[in-house]
Fold these 3 entries.
Entry 1:
Amino acid sequence: MQIKIDQTKCIGCGTCCALCPDFFDLGDNNKAILKKTETENIGCAREAAEVCPAQCIAIINN
Ligand code: SF4
């Protein structure tokens, strides 16, 4: 599975980072960045995608 963030929509709220720090962090521009993009075990990244207020996290099933 792959994870993608549309940084143009990210509002820098930090919810994804708090919920799922293994995958998400905030970059210098206060937009979410990914620590890893490809994973077998999607874990908390799916929850982060569901609660992201800007709906800019995509989980793609390969
Ligand atoms: S939860 Fe969404 S809007 Fe908030 S920092 Fe993460 S990607 Fe950006």
Entry 2:
Amino acid sequence: MYRAGRRLGIELLGLQAGDQVLDIGCGTGLNFALLQKEIGPSGTIVGVDRSADMLKLARRRADRNGWTNVILIEADAVALAPTEVSQRIAEQGGREHSDASFATYALSLMPDWGIAWENMLALTTGTAVLGVVDMQEPTGPFSVMAPLARLACWLGGSDIHAHPWTAVERDCGAVAAASARGAHLQIRVGRLTA
Ligand SMILES: C[S@@+](CC[C@H](N)C(=O)[O-])C[C@H]1O[C@@H](n2cnc3c(N)ncnc32)[C@H](O)[C@@H]1O
């Protein structure tokens, strides 16, 4: 159901081999395999999540796959201090500022997602690519599925009305948009301009 959003989002990021990509609210690392295909072993994934249990599973996934280029940071995306997180990334061999910042199905869980977005910006270079994949109510012929989508989001703790991809539209240039599953999944990717 949700893999389509990850796949479309990561395609649109247009990552290059060697890039460092931040995965905010990375959970168990479901984006990692697709990201690895783009950045290769010379790139770096920085997964940030507030849940130590999720990060344990993400580390297990990285170890199982032999990905030695994964840095995991336990931090609240809303409350974190970007300079401190940048320092922790550098201490683990990464660069202080990432080439890309990506959040899938995570920002809508954060009541103050606007602050998390600002932190995503602060942790990237001035010309980074930013991507958000999240959920809204399905539309058109798929609107019959809206009650189910609302229930799924409610059970998962997401605000289906948060629409955090609007920040990409507001703050980035060359914004690419895609959707899937009857517009339930919304994908936006854009680039910061220096
Ligand atoms: C629905 S999961 C999505 C995980 C992953 N991005 C994916 O696509 O499978 C949401 C994740 O966001 C994390 N999360 C929620 N609020 C957070 C916050 N304020 N700071 C950091 N992580 C947060 C949760 O711990 C969880 O791992």
Entry 3:
Amino acid sequence: MKVLIACESSGRVRDAFLRAGHDAMSCDLLDTEVPGPHYKGDVRDVLNQQWDLLIAHPPCTYLSSSGLHWNTRRPGRAQLTEEGVEFARLFIEGSTHIPKRAVENPVGCLSTRIRPPEQIIQPWQYGADASKATCLWLHGLQPLKPTAWVPPRLVIYGDKYVMRWDNQTDSGQNKLPPSDDRWKERSATYPGIADAMASQWGAH
Ligand SMILES: C[S@@+](CC[C@H](N)C(=O)[O-])C[C@H]1O[C@@H](n2cnc3c(N)ncnc32)[C@H](O)[C@@H]1O
């Protein structure tokens, strides 16, 4: 299959599809972090070419639930959310010339502004000791099946037991310390999820 991985600089999903024998290319405004077929530039330059499968990871900074509360406090931020919604719409509702499409984003306003996702997955269902609810909007694709379950640790929080994974503090915050690259590390697709996409969606 000819596979376009939109908005990916890590190369993880692209390389999973290449390993599975597909003709895959990633595309991002940034360089690819590992060598491989990559278009550096605006995805709209290549989106209208012939692709069998599109997997898109549009920016979530102004869309995710964790940041939306800033929209009422920071001038101009609500406009960036609007632009983010329209960019994501290009992949969720547009791109209809591509028969199989998957769009990935954290829990946020796309569910109400465009439509609810077909599926919400967790890295701990795909071999990673990490929690991060990830929505998938699917067209022409089956929901992704879990491949390897990683159990949580149980911690007492307040007066009850709660489940936490290794990327979480006991209170449920993300453990990664602030850094220039924090957003990149947090947004890179987990390898087990990339492999599941390639083995399951690449097999259809
Ligand atoms: C949330 S990150 C996705 C990271 C991805 N999961 C990965 O593993 O690399 C969103 C990416 O979209 C890219 N991006 C934003 N606007 C774009 C555009 N118009 N065309 C291509 N890439 C774009 C950003 O540079 C950023 O790397």
